[in-house]
Specification:
With about 500 residues, the protein is an alpha/beta fold. It is built from 18 helices and 13 strands. It has 3 domains: about 200 residues, 3-Layer(aba) Sandwich (Rossmann fold); about 90 residues, no CATH class; about 160 residues, Rossmann fold (3-Layer(aba) Sandwich). About 45% of the residues lie in helices and about 10% in strands.
């Protein structure tokens, strides 16, 4: 766990701890942009950041302003946390709590025990005992014994000892954020669900710190998508997805306020147990002055795309759609702007190979990160978005602010963003995407009208100032003593009664 001391706090300033995973301030991307906007837009508020990272070697890539007091990096896949395994009475307590957590993941009748078990594990993590325990043989034995209980659905899949080892290792890594130095005052603001929220849940349980949750994409849905192709046997996948599901439900129930970036996310949150009155949709915003009209279109027909090169962006569908476009418009080009995250090189190679296989390698170019993202939008006659999962995508509203016509997949909050000012097609449908792109490439007047309407829509509904003002008022509301939504007792745990603290 790394600490990066930064600027001094202002006396009397409100305190907000951002809880992130794989984003700000160690990575670029839409959620990181949103975090930077929030922090720089409120210089009067004292921020801290607890950032769940990969290895812990990731550099801070954002210019963190002086009113950020500290950045704590919590590596999920770096060296094991310091600490010592418990002995005697404490070992018995921790073993019992861990067995209760596993039982909740494996048996629907035991799900009420998830919250109390999680908070018992949090206390052990804070004392440096959880990770060493989970790296020992006893934790593996507890899972293997549970898996072999007759009557559980997973028993029929005949889980092996290797499955128990694999699942225990994955859970140990997933639970590492519980050892982070969670806040004891102010507001904890998780900017995604899942493991980023773990320090916030611990702070709520231990010190009554209000938890604010903002989901840009649906974390649980993205875990389901990711685990479809994960190289694990079904018992391992079922256990880990059970963990993420119950963690999502616990977070939804206990958050003082949930601020999804679109109405689509709200449906998942309500289904996951969030009270409707605890949810307020807050759209992402951009500064229209920072994204002015892009000016003349490129000389030839160009489809442009901006984002990180990642399977969730489904560039393979975009490349297949482009091949259909080029069959009709041979002069067309596809320009892809954005970096390839560490570990994503294989996906980029696969996309490049697909373009070559389809006979269009010379017309599909990976441009890498661009210094000014506006150039990526200006480079396109039409700007494309091909994702299979999104929240309320910045690249889309930025392109709209630049006055470019867009073709986007119907995921997350895309339709809410676009309205009638762009074309929306089903995800994973190259033919529909190609047809929409061809419609716009063939009609310059329609592109111009669509671009003008898109910019006007951003100015009227999706400005950065609106976003900043909304979160400023939410922070004040949550920080106010006695506030209805700032009390930790507002939402019970799964069993319907407040969580009782157990001995650690």
């Amino acid at each position: 766990m790394k600490h990066f001391p930064h600027g001094a706090r202002r006396p009397g300033a409100s305190r907000v701890t951002l809880l992130t995973e794989g984003t700000y301030p160690h990575s670029h991307g839409g959620v990181s942009v949103w975090c930077d906007q929030l922090v720089t837009g409120m210089p009067d508020i004292a921020f801290d950041v607890i950032a769940v990272t990969g290895t812990g070697r990731e550099p801070v890539v954002w210019d963190v302003p002086a009113h950020v007091g500290r950045v704590v990096s919590v590596p999920m896949w770096g060296p094991a946390p310091d600490g010592r395994a418990p002995r005697g009475y404490r070992l018995g307590q921790l073993s019992e709590a861990y067995e209760q957590l596993l039982a909740a993941l494996l048996d629907p009748r035991a799900e009420d025990g998830f919250g109390p078990a999680l908070y018992a594990l949090a206390r052990a993590a804070q004392a440096g005992r959880l990770s060493p325990f989970l790296r020992g043989d006893q934790a593996i034995g507890i899972l293997a014994a549970l898996w072999n209980r007759p009557g559980l659905p997973v028993h029929e899949a005949r889980p092996t000892l290797q499955d128990a080892v694999t699942a225990t290792v994955l859970l140990e890594h997933a639970l590492r954020p519980l050892a982070a130095p969670f806040p004891r005052t102010g507001v904890a603001h998780a900017v995604s669900g899942g493991v980023a929220a773990l320090p916030g849940l611990a702070a709520l349980e231990g010190h009554g710190v209000p938890l604010l949750l903002t989901e840009h994409g649906v974390y649980l849905r993205e875990r389901y998508l990711g685990y479809r192709t994960a190289p694990y046997r079904w018992p391992v996948k079922a256990l880990l997805l059970g963990f993420f599901r119950l963690l999502a439900e616990e977070t939804y129930r206990r958050a003082a306020l949930i601020t999804p970036g679109n109405r689509y996310n709200r449906l998942w949150e309500e289904r996951g147990g969030a009270a409707p009155e605890s949810i307020r949709t807050v759209y992402n915003g951009v500064d229209p002055a920072a994204f002015p009209p892009a000016g003349p279109e490129p000389a030839g027909p160009v489809l442009s795309w901006a984002g990180r090169v990642d399977p969730i962006k489904d560039l393979e569908t975009l490349i297949r759609a482009f091949a259909l476009v080029r069959a009709r418009v041979p002069a067309a080009r596809l320009r892809l702007f954005g970096g390839t995250p560490r570990g994503g090189e294989g996906y980029r190679n696969r996309c490049e190979a697909l373009a070559a296989e389809l006979g269009h390698a010379e017309a599909v170019t990976f441009e890498g990160r661009v210094e000014d993202i506006k150039d990526a939008y200006a480079a396109g006659t039409v700007v494309m978005l091909s994702s299979i999962s999104e929240g309320f995508p910045f690249t889309l509203i930025e392109a709209m602010s630049c006055g470019r016509a867009t073709v986007s997949t119907d995921v997350g909050g895309v339709r809410e963003a676009v309205g009638d000012a762009g074309l929306v097609v089903p995800p994973r449908d190259p033919a529909a995407m190609a047809a929409a792109a061809l419609e716009l490439l063939a009609d310059a007047g329609r592109r111009r009208r669509m671009g003008e309407a898109a910019r006007l829509r951003v100015i009227e509904q999706f400005t950065l100032r609106q976003t900043i003002d909304t979160f400023r008022s939410i922070y004040a509301e949550l920080s106010e003593p006695g506030s209805r939504i700032s009390t930790a007792e507002r939402a019970p745990t799964a069993g319907g009664s407040p969580v009782r603290r157990a001995a650690g």
